[in-house]
Specification:
Subcellular location: Cytoplasm
Bound molecules: 1-O-phosphono-alpha-D-mannopyranose
Subunit structure: Homodimer.
Order of helices and strands: EHEHHEEEHHEEHHEEEHEH
Number of helices: 9
Function: Involved in the synthesis of the GDP-mannose and dolichol-phosphate-mannose required for a number of critical mannosyl transfer reactions.
Helix content: 25-40%
Largest sheet: 7 strands, mixed
Pathway: Nucleotide-sugar biosynthesis; GDP-alpha-D-mannose biosynthesis; alpha-D-mannose 1-phosphate from D-fructose 6-phosphate: step 2/2
Distance between the termini: 24 Å
Strand order of the largest sheet: 5-4-3-2-1-10-11
Organism: Lyophyllum shimeji (Hon-shimeji)
Radius of gyration: 18 Å
């Protein structure tokens, strides 16, 4: 049985969306058209997002005129579901630092900061390591980059593979840490315990009795941060190439 608070929908289907590149352009605000489509979809199915970013950033992108994003969606999963809400109420969580421990974290973060200090890339800004609840986010250019600077870094990284090389070094240097390195956005990569990818969010919904769980994402290829949940047998995966593509598929699936 789908929980009674969600039983008013026309179907017992859950539809989950990645955020960047799927509901919005990378790190930018959602469009009015997308909000209308989601509002309409919420009459037919249970709707949630599952983003890699933290809740503050996702709220900036998805909330409109002071609305509360954890109430606008039935399920709100930030940091792959390590920060989780159902109908505005928080769900149980775990933390990255508790998993890894201070003694093992220190050498990792020290190594990362040294590596970035020695990195020769066109520009550097600030906030090279962002410490979150369920992960750390590492950015060679720094999270304070502007939209133009992040676009330029993303293009540079396509050619020079700065992040891929960084991840390889970390995998070799810390082989026994049990960590996954996931390149999900334009300027950074996420570091979290193995298994704490977006399939983590499914732990919060698997006993809810949904007949189908749909997932929409743009980074569904192997190595992308949508790959695991997209290819999980519990979901029906949809690979999109833009928010416009997401809208098109929603309209086809839920006319
Ligand atoms: O949602 C995808 C990614 O979005 C951001 O990546 P970037 O800043 O590199 O574009 C980050 O919040 C990252 O954690 C997240 O996975």
């Amino acid at each position: 049985m789908v929980s009674s608070a969600l039983a008013d929908r026309a179907t017992k289907k859950l539809v989950l969306f990645d955020v960047d590149g799927t509901l919005t352009p990378a790190r930018q605000a959602v469009s009015t058209e997308m909000l209308e489509v989601l509002r309409d979809l919420r009459k037919k199915a249970v709707v949630g997002f599952v983003g890699g970013s933290d809740l503050v950033k996702i709220s900036e992108q998805l909330s409109v005129q002071g609305s509360n994003v954890v109430e606008d969606f039935d399920y709100a999963f930030a940091e792959n579901g390590l920060t989780a809400y159902k109908l505005g109420k928080p769900l149980a969580s775990q933390s990255f630092i508790e998993f890894i421990g201070e003694e093992r974290y220190k050498p990792l973060v020290n190594f990362i900061l040294h590596y970035i200090a020695d990195l020769d890339i066109p520009i550097k800004r600030g906030t090279f390591v962002e410490f979150r609840n369920g992960m750390i986010n590492v950015s060679p250019i720094g999270r304070n980059a502007t939209i133009a600077e992040r676009d330029a870094f993303a293009a540079y990284d396509k050619v020079h593979g700065v992040r891929a090389a960084f991840v390889k070094v970390l995998q070799e240097k810390f082989p026994d840490y049990g960590l996954t390195y996931s390149i999900g956005g334009q300027i950074s990569f996420d570091v979290f315990p193995n298994g704490w990818d977006k399939t983590y969010a499914l732990r919060h919904v698997e006993d809810e009795g949904f007949e189908e769980i749909h997932f929409f994402g743009d980074k569904t290829y192997k190595g992308g941060n949508d790959y695991e949940i997209f290819s999980d047998p519990r979901t029906i995966g949809h690979s999109v190439n833009s928010p416009a593509d997401t809208i098109k598929i929603i309209k086809e699936l839920f006319p």
